[in-house]
Design goal:
Layout (H helix, E strand, L loop, with lengths): L1 E7 L1 H9 L7 E5 L2 E7 L10 E10 L6 E8 L5 H9 L11 E9 L4 E8 L2 H8 L2 H6 L15 E8 L1 H4 L1
Antiparallel strand pairs: 1-3, 1-4, 2-3, 2-8, 4-6, 5-7, 5-8, 6-7
């Protein structure tokens, strides 16, 4: 499954989504910035944006909730190891209260993967981060793996239901 995203202002991205009613967009906002995301096997409608392949896909992305994207730069020679590590992970996150969806996105260009989670609320995400399951999943992380090309960073967004905005 291919996934596409682009950034801009909320009003611009809402208008862009309105031109393509055949696609199921997810609009996310963080302050005055916004991100428009969709999944489709065939069509990239963005002139400037980023394309990914979802190599792990769990759950359905909802039009409401809270999302977190962990941007993880991975060296080319470490990509297979990185992907295997995610495929072998214990799926405790999927049974966490408030969990909605997870995607591991491999970039079509570049080397920055995205581990994308969606939650019912920011509180549900915070509860997960404070859980013993999270601590176990992220144990032994004092030093980043050698295959990281740079330091990972996270962005978080509030989901906006485009349909209710009209």
């Amino acid at each position: 499954m291919h996934c596409y995203m682009t950034s801009g202002t909320g009003s611009y991205l809402e208008a862009l989504a309105g031109k393509h009613p055949e696609l199921q967009f997810r609009l996310m906002t963080a302050g005055d910035q916004a991100l428009l995301y969709y999944e489709n096997a065939e069509q990239n409608i963005f002139e400037s944006g980023r394309a990914y392949e979802a190599i792990i896909s769990v759950g359905n992305l909802e039009t409401s909730g809270y999302s977190v994207m962990n941007h993880i730069p991975v060296l080319e020679e470490g990509q297979a190891i990185f992907e295997d590590r995610f495929k072998q992970r214990r799926q405790k996150i999927e049974s966490a209260p408030g969990f909605q969806a997870f995607r591991l996105l491999r970039p079509d260009e570049g080397h920055t993967y995205i581990a994308f989670t969606q939650w019912q609320s920011k509180e549900a995400f915070t509860d997960w981060k404070n859980s013993s399951d999270f601590q176990q999943a992220h144990a032994n992380r004092a030093k980043p793996p050698a295959y990281y090309a740079d330091r990972p960073f996270a962005t978080s967004y509030q989901m906006v239901d485009i349909q209710t905005q009209k």
